[in-house]
């Protein structure tokens, strides 16, 4: 079982333009897609399409449009009931795949709701299951909430993945001795935040075919107790680093449509491969192929297995010594 927790879920509304966005001008939308959003929900959507057992846990009012959207997607879920609506996030996509996101802050979670979220996760998960803590935090929790959750979930015998950014990510990095997750999934900028490195330089190097800076940064996290680090690096691909080595994955050629949900799909592909017991190189192949397939889809689409091009996704080992 793979449990996903989305602390700050949303309805994701994607507005598609036929020409480049004109800032300050009038922009005409050619189509609009609405769907259930939030990073963990996206992960569970991709896992559901792959027939993998998953439960999406998120806070929202019973009867909220988000709840119906998750039902319509066929995703199994456990609702932590609150009395404030889920937010709506707007994404604007341009014909060349350029994506602009405008996100609401989200609805507050008080201490009772925070405890209810943790209790729901523990009730859904059994020993050895994966729990993925995904996305930004809403108003209410302190920036250490994910770190505190990781520590408690580890004590319960669960494998924990974290995909977040900014203050919650930095707080987690400062407490890895007590709260090192099984998996961290930063992008290049977030990887820099985690280790005090130059994130833009890491991404620029990867764009030029040099993945060593990303792998070296990720290795610092592995040395501090994180079991695996998946660093997603946009169109260049991704790096997976464990105590056993480092691997680089390069995506197959695609025509980009929208980057929304690409990182979430990468995480879904990796967790799917982990639960199948595949070797690290094959796990990375799944992660990169899933993320690439999502980029070729409109709106907040996540790929089904038949849309994932594993055969043309290249993976090579990267020596670090």
TrEMBL record:
GO terms for molecular function: ATP binding; phosphofructokinase activity. The keyword Zinc-finger does not apply. The keyword Hydrolase does not apply. Pfam families: PfkB. Residues 8-306 form the Carbohydrate kinase PfkB domain. GO terms for cellular component: cytosol. InterPro entries: Carboh/pur_kinase_PfkB_CS, PfkB_dom, Ribokinase-like, Tagatose/fructose_Pkinase. Keywords: ATP-binding, Kinase, Nucleotide-binding, Transferase. Belongs to the carbohydrate kinase PfkB family. This is 1-phosphofructokinase family hexose kinase.
């Amino acid at each position: 079982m793979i449990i996903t927790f989305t602390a700050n879920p949303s309805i994701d509304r994607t507005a598609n333009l036929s020409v480049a966005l004109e800032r300050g001008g009038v922009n005409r939308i050619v189509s609009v897609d609405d769907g259930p959003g939030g990073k963990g929900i996206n992960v569970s959507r991709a896992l559901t399409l792959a027939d993998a057992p998953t439960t999406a846990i998120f806070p929202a009012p019973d009867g909220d449009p988000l709840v119906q959207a998750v039902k319509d997607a066929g995703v199994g879920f456990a609702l932590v009931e609150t009395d404030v609506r889920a937010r709506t996030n707007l994404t604007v996509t341009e014909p060349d795949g350029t994506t602009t996101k405008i996100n609401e802050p989200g609805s507050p979670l008080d201490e009772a709701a925070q405890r209810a979220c943790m209790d729901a996760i523990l009730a859904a998960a059994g020993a050895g299951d994966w729990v993925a803590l995904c996305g930004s935090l809403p108003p209410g929790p302190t920036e250490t909430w994910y770190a505190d959750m990781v520590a408690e979930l580890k004590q319960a015998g669960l494998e924990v993945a974290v995909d977040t950014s900014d203050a919650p990510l930095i707080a987690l990095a400062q407490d890895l001795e007590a709260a090192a997750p099984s998996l961290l999934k930063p992008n290049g900028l977030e990887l820099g935040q985690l280790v005090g490195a130059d994130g833009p330089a890491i991404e620029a190097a990867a764009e030029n075919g040099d993945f060593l800076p990303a792998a070296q940064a990720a290795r610092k996290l592995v040395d501090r107790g994180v079991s695996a680090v998946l660093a997603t690096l946009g169109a260049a691909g991704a790096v997976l680093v464990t105590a056993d080595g480092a691997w680089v994955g390069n995506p197959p050629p695609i025509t980009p449509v929208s980057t929304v949900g690409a990182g979430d799909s990468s995480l879904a592909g990796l967790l799917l491969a982990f639960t199948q017991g595949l070797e690290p190189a094959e796990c990375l192949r799944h992660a990169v192929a899933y993320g690439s397939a999502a980029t070729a889809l409109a709106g907040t689409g996540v790929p089904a297995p038949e849309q994932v091009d594993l055969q043309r996704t290249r993976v090579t080992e990267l020596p670090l010594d």
